[in-house]
């Protein structure tokens, strides 16, 4: 029986991968980093930080990830963790050379759909070999009967990036490139964010990979920067949390227009370490749904917690102190690979 079996973002959770902060670092500034992360600083390359994160950040984050793992285990969820890697090691191709990033966000490079895990062709060169962190886990899933696919490995030449283009147009269409976190699962409907971390060719490749059972919905002019899970957050069938600074009547995905929407309230700015954060204050809405009536939410986001409770959700309040520093909240730092339930189409 396949250990991978997941159809949406809300069915009761059975198995999950939680990332690690061990060895996390900021990769050297190259054309991909500017296009995806720091386009506004393209003309002042010396201002971009690089190197290992402070030990305090990594230690505190690893402790908080351990707490998350323990709390989910108490709820009966099987938790998997990657081993440590040397992210300072050089990555070299015939076209470029860089160092690594981190293995904190399994959501970014692995997409689980049905009984399949897809290694996605990520936009940052520094993440080129990131799936290796999960190789042993993926081998186990494959041996259990799961399908294991890898998108065509992108070359990520300079032609793939245009840091001086408008936001949302900095990743060119010379080859399929997208992060797994550009995708949300709504049963047979897959939302695909076209942004600086996911191009049009990536959406076409994904549709070809998942076949006619699924419909990939490329969403344009929704959020220009990177991932979708601090913009739209499915809570349960028919109910979705939206970011009011990004989502409006004009750009709401058509297949979600019949869903009830909750507008995320103003969030607490939790701050960050270093010169520049990897994400905005909206990372506070990057929650993990454990089941339709329970979500893991940052304990500091009290207004959001009250809103969710008002709409029938219980909250497990935990904390990732450095989520803005490392670039990921509870959804980013996890990858759900098995939930109870079956494949359905959700149209209301």
TrEMBL record:
Key word rRNA-binding present: no
Keywords: Transferase
Entry-linked InterPro entries: AmidinoTrfase
GO MF entries: glycine amidinotransferase activity
UniProt-listed Gene3D superfamilies: L-arginine/glycine Amidinotransferase, Chain A
A biological process term (GO) from this entry: creatine biosynthetic process
Keyword Transferase attributed: yes
Active site per the UniProt annotation: 179, 227, 332
Superkingdom to which the source organism belongs: Bacteria
Protein family according to the UniProt entry: Belongs to the amidinotransferase family.
Protein name: Amidinotransferase
């Amino acid at each position: 029986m396949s250990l991978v079996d997941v159809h949406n973002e809300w069915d009761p959770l059975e198995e999950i991968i939680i990332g690690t902060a061990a060895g996390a670092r900021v990769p050297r500034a190259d054309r991909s980093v500017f296009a995806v992360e720091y386009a506004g600083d393209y003309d002042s390359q010396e201002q971009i930080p690089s190197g290992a994160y402070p030990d305090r950040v990594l230690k505190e984050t690893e402790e908080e990830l351990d707490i998350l793992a323990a709390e989910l285990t108490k709820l009966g969820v099987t938790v998997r963790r990657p081993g440590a890697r040397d992210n300072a090691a050089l990555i070299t191709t015939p076209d470029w050379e860089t160092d690594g990033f981190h293995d904190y966000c399994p959501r970014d490079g692995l997409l689980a759909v049905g009984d399949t895990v897809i290694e996605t062709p990520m936009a940052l060169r520094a993440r080129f070999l990131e799936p290796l962190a999960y190789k042993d886990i993926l081998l186990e899933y494959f041996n259990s009967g799961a399908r294991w696919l890898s998108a065509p490995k992108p070359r990520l030449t300079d032609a793939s990036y245009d840091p001086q283009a408008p936001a949302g147009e900095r990743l060119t269409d010379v080859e399929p490139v997208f992060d797994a976190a550009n995708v949300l699962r709504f049963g047979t409907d897959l939302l695909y964010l076209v942004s600086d971390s996911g191009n049009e060719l990536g959406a076409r490749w994904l549709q070809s990979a998942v076949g006619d059972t699924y419909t990939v919905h490329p969403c344009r002019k929704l959020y220009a920067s990177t991932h979708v899970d601090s913009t739209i957050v499915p809570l349960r069938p028919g109910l979705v949390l939206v970011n009011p600074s990004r989502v409006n009547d004009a750009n709401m995905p058509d297949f979600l227009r019949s869903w009830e929407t909750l507008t995320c309230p103003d969030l607490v700015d939790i701050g960050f370490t270093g010169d520049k954060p990897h994400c905005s204050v909206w990372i506070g809405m990057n929650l993990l749904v454990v089941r339709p009536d329970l979500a893991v939410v940052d304990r500091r986001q009290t207004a959001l917690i009250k809103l969710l409770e008002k709409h029938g959700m219980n909250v497990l309040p935990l904390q990732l102190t450095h989520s803005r520093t490392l670039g990921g909240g509870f959804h980013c730092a996890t990858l759900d690979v098995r939930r109870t339930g079956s494949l359905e189409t959700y149209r209301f």
